[in-house]
Amino acid sequence: MTLETDVTATPTGDAVAFELTVRNAGDDPVELTFRSSLTADFAVLDDDEERWRASEGRMFTQALQSETVEAGGERTYRGGWSEAEPGEYTVVATLNTVDDRGEARTDFSV
């Protein structure tokens, strides 16, 4: 089982759109089991200090759910920071699975 993760950050004005893509580079399907209705979380860091987190102050359904990523397939999870302040940041995207299967990060500017 080989999962590859990648995150992109696309600034537009004072907002930033995030996309976490999970690819199954293996030959067999992979089942992802999520802890809750939060499938992916995005945290924005400013010099390793957390400035914003998508899940902060939000509630999510507490029920396990699963998705299958077929061999060679991919899934994309989206989030967004709507009141971004100008600066240089790093986004850390985390797949919220029971076995902590994926994390990706990238730098971006607003």
Account of the protein in words:
- With 110 residues, this protein is mainly beta.
- It has strands at 3-12, 15-24, 30-34, 40-46, 49-53, 65-69, 74-81, 88-95, 103-109.
- It has a 4-stranded antiparallel sheet, with no helix packed on it.
- The model has no long low-confidence stretch (mean pLDDT 91).
> How far is it from the N-terminal to the C-terminal residue, by CA?
36 Å
- Mean pLDDT equals 91
Secondary-structure element string: EEEEEEEEE
Structural class: mainly beta
Unreliable parts: none
Helix content: under 10%
Please give the oligomerization state of what you see: single chain
Strand order of the largest sheet: 5-4-8-9
Q: What is the helix tally?
A: 0
User: How much of the polypeptide forms β-strand, as a percent range?
Assistant: over 45%
**Number of strand elements:** 9
Radius of gyration: 14 Å
Q: What's the overall geometry?
A: globular
Q: Main beta sheet, described?
A: 4 strands, antiparallel
